[in-house]
Recover the amino acids of this structure.
């Protein structure tokens, strides 16, 4: 399906539900709200339906939404548009809305997208689903106002790490420029999205810094969060995972490791590398996967055994990497 | 002077020294190197002259430079171009090069610029001097290659906090897009510039986090670095100042304070606010100054007395701010 065809479908429908994926991030929330506001301008009945609360950090964004438990049972939408959602499992309990809709649409930028809807538009060249929505609104003839711009700015800036990741293209910057032209306050948006942190998270960071271990002349840095510590500090999954990038940022480090004991005997490992170690291969050797510079796996053993095995493999990869 | 006139001056000269300000930052290094590479393409003798080593974080950038102590005494340049430099005092020991030159040029974006040269081009609308250099190279007909693009990308991204500050304009993004079109590896550049930290700095962050003090229901957060702690941890001025933004980022905080005892009886105070307290007024009441959201002052008293006075003033400003 082309974007023009998608625009035609939208124009011909009147009653539309927008479904972001579960555990919604900035891209899917911003994209969903922006599309909802645009549909409203086109006089369409439309609503974003989520399962969880919108994360506090994005609560300032405008857009009409409801939680699934607020939707009357038996309500059927003529069209459902899934955004930023790689497969239908990520619709979770909202799958019945998708299955009961007359028309189903899937708009995404993930390479792993399974094209699960009747109409699928998957553009893996876009840094964020927000870029696709920007193009779609342009075709629909919807003027980007400040509320839509703020949503799409958040969508794109969060999925590109603030225009820092390799998925950022020159087009990403040109699109961001269009949002700034509406007069949105990017200093305030960026402060809320990128520069606000909870004290609990800071305490965890301090704890992690003081317990970083180094190996191979500082080329490997490791943070281990034991089950005991996670329980004692009340660390959420999100807070724990947020530490996965920290060890890699230290000067001289090539591979950063986070070992998180999710349950006794179950250790989740995050690998990050900077320049020459392909951590997808290391993770794969433990049944995991990912990318060259970011990967993960889960080991069913205690922390000490997991650490020993992971370090052996990573040390070897670092030595081989240096030699190459 | 217009940019076109500046381009004419440059075209007519052959022997050019480029002088960034002392304690050079990303904008002045990137702008200076980019201009030097462009002059080289135009077959001009040119060199960037600095007093300190180029900071490690920018050592990957290309450009011909020398330290002042490597310049033969008595050497005279026909033209000197000062970049990103608000007044001639920021040339420090290189002032004699400026004073002995036949033609002097001053290119900057700071509102406080004193227009100290024969030819001055000060554009306060530009987010960075790098934006001005981009325009200048365009007029000079110099093609932006990867080395020039990397320099100017660093110049602009550092002065805008990675496109996050309010000085970022839509034009800033359009210009960044032009740099990405050359094929530079922004993921690697951003990793080096924004996501690399020394272990000493992390240890200081951990120490600071564990010693943050809160006042007024968490609306004020304060970090105090005593002279004793600074000596014990070997904290550099730069490392200490780097903490000034941290307290403000904590959820619920309106004013973040850093008190640094530079010498016994001398306390430097950094004020940062988020939404409603004008910290320039608070700093001014202690003989300091700055902007609404970032200001500073120095108090000649011990830490305990300084903390008491500063907190009294800030509490009052917070209470008044809430009421407004």
């Amino acid at each position: 399906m082309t974007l023009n065809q998608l625009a035609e479908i939208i124009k011909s429908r009147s009653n539309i539900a927008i479904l972001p994926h579960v555990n919604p991030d900035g891209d899917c929330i911003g994209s969903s709200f922006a599309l909802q506001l645009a549909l409203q301008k086109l006089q369409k009945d439309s609503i974003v339906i989520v399962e969880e609360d919108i994360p506090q950090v994005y609560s300032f964004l405008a857009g009409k939404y409801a939680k699934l438990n607020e939707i009357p049972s038996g309500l059927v939408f003529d069209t459902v548009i899934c955004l930023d959602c790689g497969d239908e499992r990520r619709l979770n309990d909202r799958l019945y809305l998708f299955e009961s809709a007359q028309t189903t649409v899937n708009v995404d930028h993930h390479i792993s997208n399974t094209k699960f809807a009747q109409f699928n538009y998957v553009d893996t060249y876009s840094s964020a689903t927000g870029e696709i929505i920007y193009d779609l609104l342009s075709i629909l003839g919807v003027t980007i106002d400040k509320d839509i711009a703020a949503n799409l700015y958040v969508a794109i800036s969060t999925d590109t790490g603030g225009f820092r990741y390799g998925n950022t293209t020159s087009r990403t910057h040109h699109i961001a420029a269009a949002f700034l032209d509406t007069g949105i306050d990017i200093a305030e948006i960026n402060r809320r999205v990128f520069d606000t942190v909870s004290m609990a998270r800071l305490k965890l960071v301090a704890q992690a810094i003081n317990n970083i271990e180094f190996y191979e002349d500082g080329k490997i840095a490791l943070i281990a969060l034991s089950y005991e510590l996670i329980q004692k500090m009340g660390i959420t999954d999100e807070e724990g995972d947020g530490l996965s990038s920290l060890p890699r940022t230290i000067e001289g480090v090539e591979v950063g490791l986070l070992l998180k004991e999710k349950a006794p005997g179950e250790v989740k490992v995050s690998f990050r590398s900077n320049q020459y170690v392909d951590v997808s291969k290391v993770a794969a050797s433990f049944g995991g996967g990912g990318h060259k510079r970011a990967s993960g796996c889960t080991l069913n053993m205690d922390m000490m055994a997991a650490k020993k095995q992971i370090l052996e493999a990573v040390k070897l990869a670092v030595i081989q990497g240096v030699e190459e």
User: Anything to note?
Assistant: The longest helix of chain A spans residues 303-323. Chain A touches chain B through 45 residues (CB under 8 Å).
